Amino acid sequence: MENLAINPTKIATKWALFYVVVSIVLTYTFQLLNIDPNSAVKYVGYIPFIAFCVLAQKEFKDASGGFMTFGKGFSVGFRYSLFSGIILAVFVFIYLKFLSPDVLVKSMEEQQTVMADKGMSQEQIDKALEMGTKYGAIFGAVATAIGSLIFGAIVALIGAAILKKERTAYDIVDSAEDPAV
Hints:
It is a single chain. It is built from six helices and no strands. With about 180 residues, it is mainly α. About 25% of the residues are buried.
């Protein structure tokens, strides 16, 4: 029987797409329910991110016969984070720029109050708001991509440490004797 190479990129991409779909649904659910973006409910979005990262690593481990090195597990989790961050960044840009620009406007209004409380002059506030309105969607997309990658790397490290199971000399001997493995 021919041994097919397991493609970690394919597994990571599949789970990243699942996460992005769930994240889009959560975004519109929060918007529909008019949930304040600064409330603690926003942390609900981290649960599917973590779950799908670990599920990607587990699928890779299962496809590898129940064995996975720490490095391979981290690689799958990091790819998942990279792909989900990039795809979600594209959504965030489209969402803030075209689909719901009012979200960005509302955020700018909240920031205006914060800047005034910090003692910034009206000229500084106006300049900051102009820049935020002009580049806010891009800043949001870049922050999403970088944040997903950093948070995902941490989750991938933890998931790889928990799920790793390296082959021992005994496992190698067993697989050489058993042609089905």
